[in-house]
Amino acid sequence: MRLKAIVTLKCPHCLQGAVFRKPFIMHPTCPHCHIRYERERGYFMMAVFVGYVMGFFVVVPVLAALYLAVQPTLLGYMMGAVAALVLAIPLIFHYARVVWMHLDEFMDPRPTSPL
Q1: Angle, to 10 degrees, between the axis of helix 45-69 and the axis of helix 74-107?
Q2: What's the structural domain count of the chain?
Q3: What is the mean pLDDT of residues 93-109?
Q4: Which one-letter DSSP state was computed for residue 110?
Q5: Which of 61, 52, 59 minimizes the C-alpha distance to 83?
Q6: pLDDT of 16 above 50
């Protein structure tokens, strides 16, 4: 159930409310259970590290494919990595935040009634 909520970008608490209202713009609270997404100031800094890991898993297969297909120069590898990351930025941004919120909720669940 939680995996489905992560894939569909849903609330980590109720698993039903949408996290994002527009691309790159989050709801401050869940539209369904009204839990506040940002627990404290700087809460999403850990999502940056989740995004780094996701970026690694995007770039490495692209570099491996470049190596096996065309064996480009160093500049070609860099351009391939940058192109892959630029195309993946929206997905990485959204999923890094949602994965971080779900990990945090799993490790430190909130009370059922919002404070």
Answers
A1: 140
A2: 1
A3: 95
A4: P
A5: 59
A6: yes
